[in-house]
Amino acid sequence: MPEHAPRAQAAGAVDGKSAPAERAVDVPDGGPADAIADLIPPHVLALLDRLWSAGHAAYVVGGSLRDALLGWTPHDWDVATDARPERVQALFPGSHYENRFGTVLVPADGGEVVEVTTFRRDHRYGDHRRPDTVTFGDDLLGDLSRRDFTINALAWGRPRSARSSVGAQAVSAELVDAFGGMDDLRRGVLRAVGDPLQRFDEDALRLVRAARLAGQLGYELDPATEAAMRRTADLVRHVSHERIGQELRKLLRARDPSRGLRVMAATGILDVAFPELAAQRGVPQAKARGMDCWEHTLATVDAAKRLRPADERLALAALLHDVGKPSTMGGGHFIGHEDVGAQMAGRLMRRLAIPRDVAEPVVHLIRQHMFNYDPSWTDAAVRRLVQRVGPDAIDDLLLLREADNLGSGQSSDEGRLLELRRRIAEQQRRGFPLSLKDLAVDGDDLQRELGLGPGPLIGALLERLLDSAIADPARNTYRQAILDARAWLPELLERAGDPGTGGPGGNGATAKGAGSTTAHGPTGPTAGTAAARESRGTREARGTQEARG
User: 6, 75, 143, 377: which could join 381 in a potential S-S bond, CB 3.0 to 4.6 Å?
Assistant: First the structure.
């Protein structure tokens, strides 16, 4: 059969890894069926050909056809046929059928998988998610009538019993548009098939999907469809949190996620699916004039997408960065909202089954996002910020602050972010210790040089050495570290009754020969520097205050 190469596009499919850049339909009005054949990849055409040659009706349907018509590259292809599942399995050895909905997974060349589903009618949705029973049939229109939206109820292919060469089939194939889907594609309208109340009552996930598609495609909601969404929004309670999370992640791939989020808010879906976000409405946002916290959040998410379009973690952090404000509001301030928000965001993402490798960095960014840089910061304060946030997360944090600024109607450089970026880059270029493993000494060195046994006292010394080396990287040498540790040891032993420090009164290590430890005395500076004489807790508190302004 002749090859029909799919059109290459820069933008991804709506349900794929990225959102389309713009809406466009490039199908000739006079003969769309001929043009569509060129949009379908060879492995799908080969599958259709086998079904046609066996005398079956077979059509490309659903979101894959929609995306192809819009000029985007679908990531998954769906085929509907009158062939029963067992017949499809017989025609395609190696295929898999393990469900009651008539869908057979057919492997193709290159690792592709095509879902082939028998025409069916669905009967009663008792749980507002899946049909209680399905009936296989031979009627394409009946199959299309059960679908969610008109733009997903298009079909391209051939009816049964037509047998000819592939070239002839491609010419005579037809585009079936029984519900005005092509017109809705051209007009940019999202409209339910048939009675929208019935469609949403059947499957409540369609409510969340409607908001997501309207946002991703930039489409207007058909008035009757929008009204039905408002009336049935509470049905979203029947949708699993995991599926809601999947839809949210797809929505955040859109160029402007705020479009879909606004649909959720306007129809009442937000209150049911994301009550933590719904609570932001009406919460004042002092630095963003004319906005409440919800409007600020929407603007921040869109700004994050412009700064780094493919970064899901940044988009989630932007969406959830102020989720703690409603519960911490008092006297015009939101004291501690970053910590409360981090906890809430963690719980929300666990509920939505967001993978840990995505959720944990998001929680970290939210917890750290309330820094307040000032030009008076010392280089040590800059280094402490990097050490506290982590070198792998510091750029993400600055991007989140940049999006936060833009979402407040401010300059992206508000708070002298460019200056802070420059200073961080300079400190990273010079190099400084970030963790205990970067120190010039380790626990074994301290035990050997100071005559100590293992225990918490060793850990306390190492932590103090790290803090000292961050304050002054020049002190991170083997000789200086041992001198400093010796100088601090009497103080730590004197406080040995504190279980947090360790020692004879607690759980810490003791000198293998107490006299030998004190006999050495502070052979270097009495405590290295004034900062080295401070308790670590005092110095950390001062560093945190310095790093927050």
Answer: 377
Cβ count within 10 A of residue 10: 9
Which of 214, 311, 304, 319 has its CA nearest to residue 267?
Answer: 214
Q: How far apart are CA 321 and CA 395, in angstroms?
A: 16
| Contact (CB, 8 A) for 41 and 3 | no
* 3-class secondary structure, 299: helix
Nearest to 80 by CA among 146, 145, 140: 140
Are the C-beta atoms of residues 373 and 424 closer than 8 Å to each other? no
pTM, entire model: 0.81
First to last CA, the chain: 70
Q: At what angle do helices 478-494 and 456-471 cross, to 10 degrees?
A: 130
Residues in the chain, overall count: 549
Q: Which candidate, 103, 115, 212, 199, places its Cα nearest to that of 150?
A: 199
Calculated CA dihedral for residues 197, 202, 208, 212, nearest 10 degrees? -80
d(CA 34, CA 174): 8
Encode pLDDT of 479-504 as tens digits.
999 999 999 999 999 886 644 444 43
In our burial notation (b when 16+ CB lie closer than 10 A, e otherwise), range 366-384 reads bbbbbbebeeebeebbbbb
Contact status, residue 27 vs residue 36, Cβ threshold 8 Å:
yes
Q: Is 278's pLDDT higher than 60?
A: yes
Instruction: Please state, in angstroms and rounded to a whole number, the distance separating the CA atoms of residues 184 and 224.
Output: 14
3-state secondary structure of 58: strand
CA distance 266 to 278: 11
Residue tagged 């769309």 (tokens):
32
DSSP 248-260: HHHHTTSS-THHH
> Within 13 Å and on the Cβ side, how many CA atoms surround 196?
20
**160 near 57, Cβ under 8 Å?**
yes
Tell me whether strands 133-136 and 155-158 are parallel, antiparallel or unpaired.
unpaired
Q: What single letter denotes the amino acid at residue 313?
A: R
* Cβ neighbours around 88 below 10 Å, total: 27
Tokens of 77: 């292809």
Nearest to 223 by CA among 185, 260, 262, 192: 192
Distances (CA, A) of 16 to 149, 203, 220, 251, 393: 18, 22, 21, 11, 27
* pLDDT tens digits for range 105-133: 999 877 889 999 999 887 667 777 666 77
Q: Which residues have CB under 8 Å from 403's CB, separation 6+? A: 300, 301, 303, 304, 307, 314, 318
